[in-house]
Amino acid sequence: MQIAIVILAAGKGTRLKSKRAKVLHQIGGKTLLQHVVDAASQVVPPHDIFAIVGHQAENVQASVQSRGIRFVLQEQQCGTGHALQCAERATRGYEHVIVLSGDVPLLRPETIIALRDFHMQEHPAMTILSANVDHPEGYGRIVRKHPGKPEVTAIVEQKSLRSGQEKIHEINSGIYAFRRETLYDFINDLSDENPHKELYLTDMARILSRAGERVVAMNAADPVEILGANTIPEMMDLDRAMRMEIARRLMLNGVVIQRPGTVVIDSTVDVGPDTIIEPYAQLLGATRIGSNCRIRSFSVLEDAILDDHVTVRQSCVITNSHIGPGAILGPFAHVRPGCFIGENAHVGNFVETKQVRMGKGSKANHLTYLGDAEIGAGCNIGAGTITCNYDGQLKHRTVIGDGVFIGSDSTLVAPLVIGNGAYVAAASCITEDVPEDALALGRPQQTVKQGWAARRRAQLESRKVAG
Ligand code: UD1
Ligand code: CA
Fold first, then answer.
1. Which of 135, 290, 375, 435 is the most buried (most CB within 10 A)?
2. Cβ–Cβ < 8 Å for 205, 189
3. 111: part of which helix (H) or strand (E)?
4. Predicted confidence band at 466 (pLDDT cuts at 50, 70, 90)?
5. Substitution candidate for ligand 1 out of 101, 192, 206 with most atoms within 8 A of CB
6. How many angstroms from the chain centroid is the CA of residue 103?
7. Does domain 3-226 match CATH 3.90.550.10?
8. CA 20 to ligand 1 centroid distance, Å
9. What DSSP state is assigned to residue 223?
């Protein structure tokens, strides 16, 4: 049984009013097309999947290139029927063709499999995936030969509905299975005599049925899956539906999501059991969170790896970094790309880190910038410490050993090495390496003028009296 899956993705998406091709818009953290390709890949191997590309073909192709699928160019987009005409050569040798729509992203692999199995059982020339919905406006409608029987005589597009047909609530999902040979025997009978002057793939239902071929429809179990995204509001509806589903899946795996309607979690994210996610958190991209963590409100994690027992307090931004077990971050910490924060380490409020390796149990609790730095275990980085990593042209590294104490308000001018167990006095400007166990003082010596303040007050007082 040789099955090809063809994904229609060449259209512009005029109704979106966007410069970006429709299938490149994102919901749930992936583009529409990536969702469809990923579902298809669960049903057939990637080299049996063909995406029809046309509008912004290069970008569309690039967005799913890594999936190993194949592409067919539809240079001019003359309709969904024309798109399938373009795929004739590419699909030669396959017995059946399943057609998916690049703008129907909630479709689950199980539903594609159900359509395939129905098609195989019924042996028709065309099987249409349909659904009964409350608001069928805008969709093609299924005209059945007899109510309750699978046979279909036609699909009628919204603009061509005849009186009475607007009452049909069974819609065309734009997803089909065809016996390939029969499809291509008749596909050139399509005509563009319709309001859009396009070749509609939907017309194949009438053409095949009139030719005496069997055309059937299979009702989708869950109509939500086959909703299309033609406008931004529709797309955001799908985004919400998808994210609710993601949250549900995580909750069923033991994650506590306190207000699932407020969080934004991408479909690519994984979270361990007993982790608590507070309202308005965002977990994006390749983020992986262990068990027993707490992600407090308004924190945004993107491509972040968190081991178990990590606390991310309110309003943190963590990007492309790894946080070790038991670490505590924030509130208001900014962990920029390339950081590794060690076990039980603390990165406190208004602390920014970039390309930093921080050892076990080290703490930078307040108002600090650490960039291009390696910090050993058990260090205390005082409030207001700044690594001066940039000389205007190049970035330089600061290397701090284990058990180092950096006093508050210190500036560490890189390149710099501070040895194990060293102390840096508060408010120092350190420009040279500090050896192990040494104390470095880099600040002007304090001068104390005895009685100065009292004398000044007396002086001011006497002027007031004179005035
Ligand atoms: C289509 C169906 C409609 C169905 C609906 C379900 C037709 C004529 N109508 O309408 O019956 O209810 O889907 O969502 O098919 N595309 C190409 N090349 C083209 C034109 C479109 O690849 O020349 C692609 C688009 O990128 C899109 C898909 O085909 O991914 C569907 O096209 P779209 O214009 O969105 O069709 P609908 O109007 O939604
Ligand atoms: Ca559509």
1. 375
2. no
3. helix 109-122
4. confident
5. 101
6. 17
7. yes
8. 17
9. G
Q: Is 100 helix (H, G, I), strand (E, B) or coil?
A: strand
Report the chain's C-alpha Rg in angstroms: 32
Half-sphere CA count of 186, side-chain side, radius 13 A: 20
CA dist 366 and 115 (Å) reads 58
Give CA–CA dist 321/225, Å, rounded: 34
Distance 85 CA to ligand 2 centre (A): 19
Whether residue 366 lies in the annotated active site? yes
Three-class SS of residue 278?
Answer: coil
Check pLDDT > 80 for residue 111.
yes
% of the chain beyond a pLDDT of 70: 100
Please give the average per-residue pLDDT across 159-168, as a whole number. Answer: 92
Report the C-alpha dihedral over residues 185, 187, 190, 196, rounded to 10 degrees: 180
Q: Given this model, what pLDDT does residue 397 score?
A: 98
Which residues form the pocket of ligand 1, taking CB atoms under 6 Å from any ligand atom? 8-11, 22-23, 52, 74, 77-80, 82-83, 101-104, 139-140, 155, 157, 171-174, 200-202, 228, 230
Residue range(s) of every CATH 2.160.10.10 domain in the chain: 232-440
Contacts of residue 89, Cβ cutoff 8 Å, sequence gap at least 6: none
pLDDT at 1 over 70: no
Domain with CATH 3.90.550.10 in the chain: 3-226
pLDDT in tens, 327-344: 999 999 999 999 999 999
pLDDT at 175 over 70: yes
CATH 1.10.260.40 is right for the domain spanning 232-440: no
